[in-house]
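Handout for the seminar on molecular recognition.
Each group receives one record of this type.
Step one: identify the two inputs.
Step two: read the structure output and locate the region that could contact pyridoxal-5'-phosphate.
Step three: write two sentences on what you found, then compare them with the reference statements printed after the record.
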Amino acid sequence: MPKIASRVSQLTGEGALAVFSRAKELEKEGRSIIHLELGEPDFHPAAPVVDAVRAAVASGRDRYVSTRGLPELRAAIAGYLQRTRKLDVAAEQVLVAPGCKMALALAMMALIEPGDEVLYPDPSFPIYPSFTRGLGAKAVSYSLLEKNKFQPDIAEIAAKVAPKTRVLIFNSPNNPTGTVFSDAALAQLAELAKQHDLWVLADEIYARILFTGEYKSIWALPGMAERTVIIDGFSKSFAMTGWRLGYAVAQKRVVDALDMLVLNTFTCTAEFSQVAAIEALNDSTHAVPAMVAEYRKRRDIFIGKLNTIPGFRCQIPDGAFYAWVNIEDTGMSSEAVQKLLLEEAGVAAIAGAAFGAEGRNYLRFSLVSATHLLEEALERIQRVSLHWRANTHATASRP
Ligand code: PLP
């Protein structure tokens, strides 16, 4: 039998999808499931965006287009980053891709050599270490710990920089913790990157889903525009997951490299999606602030109540739409709590190990269901919590 290339065996999947398929099975059996496992907004794009895609298809905007993306969309993204993040970016520094994940993969293919080392946060999006290994490089994690409010420990990262370290990846606000890296952390990471001549891959996909202050990108710090690649997209901020729209922002020579990869793989991003993306960026109906306000409400309701359930502990995230919950005090493993919640309570959440070893005592809940469903989920969790409360009491009272 011909062999599959070994790089594929280096790749791993995403835990959320396994829980999602089990949840779907249970639903088929007639069970009621509250879905808090996937990072997919329950909103849909604003009406003008949907009108724009319809009009684009009707007027024949369904052709091969520029490999880098439509010039008008690239200019619109540059303007949007100026408006929302005060970044000075030229349209020629933007490359459009089908999804943030594809922009990430292109950037990693362009920057990482086999044998390189790549620093990435633990916990974080599982694709960072997976794709790093797929490229023949070594994925080296740095921890985001609860005792540090999930901020990076710069001394730990500095100690892990080796001669072969080429890329530092981070994601702020972070999936799954919701942490927004502090100004001090960004400044120190920037210094480290300059000192060791590293590329910085800044995954800013949750930048708009921010509950306090203004978003600060590492790109804006002195000397960082030339070594930073911003990854972003439309899936989360504009609730356009299935449209497959993302982009990378980098200096022109990086964009040229990404462009060559586009040319050799998918040719271009769908023209009609790109036309409608311009409408999304304009956000004429203020859909984005309305969604963020709703996520904030959900965060406050869900996490406020969750913290009253014995055994659960959750810091209030500053961004994204997740609750990252420490379940150590239940006395059960997070896999066992995940199973109990799904099978007995009908609440789908993910055991934190899916996001790295530091996630072993955590569960991630995505706040992507309406508040009445979140309230129902809380009642169900409260009910099954009697399980571990009984167990922990039994253990505690044993001699
Ligand atoms: N980066 C992070 C941190 C994510 O959480 C996700 C999606 O869950 C992505 C990238 C992928 O985004 P997209 O759906 O646009 O490919």
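Reference statements: The CA atoms of residues 72 and 278 lie 8 Å apart. The longest strand covers residues 165-171.
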